[in-house]
Amino acid sequence: MSGKLTIRARGRDFVQKVVIPKGEPANFLTEAELRAKFAGLTDAVLGTERAALLADGVLAIIDVERISSLVGLSTPVSAMRLAGE
Length: 85
Fold this sequence. Notes:
Elements: E1 3-9, E2 12-18, H1 31-46, H2 48-59, H3 67-73, H4 77-82
């Protein structure tokens, strides 16, 4: 979906229109942007190190021998503490 934002300030109009938003297939996130978004959503739940390892694994999923290793990394820190790990 495209979008347009207009802000009126100091007697002027500031307009920004985005035809193809970031994240759409035609304007996909860079790897750095994708990692930053992933970290922002997961670091507090998984911890910074586990989240980075999970991101590495998902981005290289074609080379992952056992998916269970990624599933293990996706376990929230609080759940691991409850399980005594």
